[in-house]
């Protein structure tokens, strides 16, 4: 008898209790695969509670909230749910799924058993169990990115990652340097700006898009145009699209564009990407501010132009096309340096994303960049799947709009590959 034969056993183990993990649980149950377990090291959906600022709201319309068996049912499908509404929506989904959740239980190790006979899992307290199939649904945003130069900032400057930011009041008086202008950075900079704080924003290559164009939300147009149905292998960038920064836009106050040039005209100080901190306390920025602003505007105008072509080709009745966006403000010169001494900067907010952490998964599925290789969530290791990653299959794979469809596909693959049903039993426990 093998050393693992006496261990508690699950037909399917799911690691991660966010929208991806609960979605696959829903679809497994719909296929009669009740004997599965979801391990969540914190609480289900905890990221939405703990890593979102107070004024956070969706940047895509409510109608795109389409978790399996739990579509948006409110009275504002074209609005944008605020944080409390999102949490209520997710609590409702958690209740509906009835998932067998093991909250507060981390998986410290998961690896294939010899001979392809399932997987061994070890939890945080050292307990072990086995599983016939394994779904990695923990997402790809694990470790907040903070550059090493942060260690050399003066100790009296408060530093937060975007995951820790809540509201302007938590920061000391003084100027705030926001580093990064993707979705989080642009919205946090706006939150501070609207609160009357003096903001310095270091921006990279993030693109932007319009909120509304020709009488409708741009998301509505792109949905009609089939963009959200495009699989990753048909995207012009192929798998490279997974590395793209999301377009900055906001659903705040009913939805609007985020125009960094307008912020600059109102007093926000814009810089290129932060590159270094010299020994004398001088911050150095890439001299590319004009270039990245122009690039973001080209993307903005390009998306609108693609919508215009779609309208024209189909003879759709819509309001007239506005003139292409013209810059409201231009940098007089590149700001390449900033001496911290005397700058008045009291806080820095790092908005440069997260890195994945799959150190607990001992399986030969990772590429040279540490990301799991897969095709629509199916890896080269039999019985091992990934779910909830950006562009796993389509644009919506890491979002409420598409994760359910991905989960249905993976659940179908699991159902087809499971061995003959075993007698009904009490759910095994790893602890």
UniProtKB/TrEMBL annotation:
Transmembrane segments: none annotated. The keyword Methyltransferase does not apply. This is MSMEG_0569 family flavin-dependent oxidoreductase. SUPFAM superfamilies: FAD/NAD(P)-binding domain (SSF51905). It comes from Roseateles agri. Pfam families: Pyr_redox_3. Keywords: Oxidoreductase. InterPro entries: Auxin_biosynth/cation_transpt, CHP04046_FMN-dependent, FAD/NAD-bd_sf.
């Amino acid at each position: 008898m093998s050393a693992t034969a006496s261990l508690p056993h699950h037909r399917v183990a799911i690691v991660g209790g966010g929208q991806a993990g609960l979605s696959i649980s829903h679809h497994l149950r719909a296929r009669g695969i009740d004997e599965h377990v979801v391990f969540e090291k914190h609480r289900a959906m905890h990221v939405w509670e703990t890593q979102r600022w107070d004024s956070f709201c969706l940047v895509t319309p409510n109608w795109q909230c389409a978790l399996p068996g739990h579509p948006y049912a409110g009275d504002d499908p074209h609005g944008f749910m605020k944080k409390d509404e999102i949490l209520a929506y997710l609590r409702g989904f958690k209740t509906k799924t009835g998932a067998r959740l093991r909250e507060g239980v981390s998986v410290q190790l998961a690896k294939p058993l010899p001979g392809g006979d399932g997987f061994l899992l070890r939890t945080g307290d050292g307990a072990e169990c086995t599983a016939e199939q394994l779904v990695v649904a923990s997402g790809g945003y694990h470790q907040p990115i903070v550059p090493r130069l942060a260690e050399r900032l003066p100790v009296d400057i408060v530093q937060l990652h975007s995951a820790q930011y809540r509201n302007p009041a938590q920061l000391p008086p003084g100027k705030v340097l926001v580093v990064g202008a993707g979705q989080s950075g642009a919205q946090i900079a706006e939150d501070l700006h609207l609160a009357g704080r003096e903001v310095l924003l270091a921006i990279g290559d993030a693109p932007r898009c319009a909120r509304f164009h020709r009488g409708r939300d741009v998301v509505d147009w792109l949905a009609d145009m089939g963009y959200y149905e495009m699989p990753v292998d048909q995207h012009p960038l192929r798998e490279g699209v997974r590395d793209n920064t999301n377009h900055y836009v906001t659903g705040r106050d009913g939805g609007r564009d985020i125009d960094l040039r307008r912020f600059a005209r109102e007093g926000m100080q814009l810089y290129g990407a932060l590159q270094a901190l010299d020994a004398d306390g001088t911050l150095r920025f890439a001299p590319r501010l004009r270039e990245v602003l122009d690039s973001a505007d080209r993307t903005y105008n390009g998306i609108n132009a693609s919508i215009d072509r779609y309208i024209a080709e189909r003879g759709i009745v819509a309001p007239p096309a506005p003139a292409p966006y013209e810059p409201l403000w231009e940098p007089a010169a590149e700001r390449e340096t900033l001496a911290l001494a005397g700058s008045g900067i009291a806080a820095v907010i790092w908005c440069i994303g997260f890195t994945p952490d799959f150190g607990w998964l001992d399986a030969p599925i990772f590429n040279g960049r540490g990301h799991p290789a897969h095709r629509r969530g199916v890896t080269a290791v039999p019985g091992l799947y990934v779910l909830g990653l950006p562009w796993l299959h389509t644009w919506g794979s890491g979002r409420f709009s598409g994760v359910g469809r991905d989960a249905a596909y993976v659940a179908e693959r699991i159902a087809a590959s499971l061995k003959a049903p075993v007698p009904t039993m009490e759910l095994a426990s790893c602890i």
